[in-house]
Design brief:
Layout lengths: L2 E5 L2 E4 L4 E8 L7 E7 L6 E6 L6 E3 L7 E6 L4 E6 L8 E8 L12 E2 L3 E6 L1
Parallel strand pairs: 2-11
Antiparallel strand pairs: 1-3, 3-8, 4-5, 4-9, 5-6, 7-8, 9-10, 9-11
Length: about 120
């Protein structure tokens, strides 16, 4: 059974930084894409960033480009999200996701999801 456990969320001030981490277990994740989405109340879950198995294909949502950095450690089956220059609009529950397909990673009805971790950025 696939299990994704996020950590690192919390409270930060605008301009500050947080680092999220997600540990995956339950199967071999070779060739899987890993990444992050976020969601605020009343809104659909939105894509944040993704990285393929080899780290050659990385994608970011426009609002986080230049501020967030995604990385992964295949030996430990982890994916991290370094969030710098945080803004109040980054406040959301952040979800880790893993999926075999990189090109279909934005589909919300595919892949495996973590339970989410709250990030709150104060102004």
């Amino acid at each position: 059974q696939v299990q994704l456990v996020e950590s690192g969320g919390g409270l930060a001030q605008a301009g500050g930084s947080l680092r999220l981490s997600c540990a995956a277990s339950g199967r071999t994740f070779e060739s899987y894409t890993m990444g992050w989405f976020r969601q605020t109340p009343g809104k659909e879950r939105e894509f944040v960033a993704s990285i393929d198995w080899g780290g050659d294909m990385i994608s970011y949502a426009e609002p986080v480009k230049g501020r967030f950095t995604i990385s992964r450690d295949n030996a430990r089956n982890t994916v991290d999200l370094q969030m710098n220059s945080l803004k109040p609009e980054d406040t959301a529950v952040y979800y880790c996701k893993v999926q075999l397909s990189f090109t279909a990673f934005l589909r919300l009805n595919m892949g495996f999801w973590g339970q989410g971790t709250q990030v709150t950025v104060s102004s």
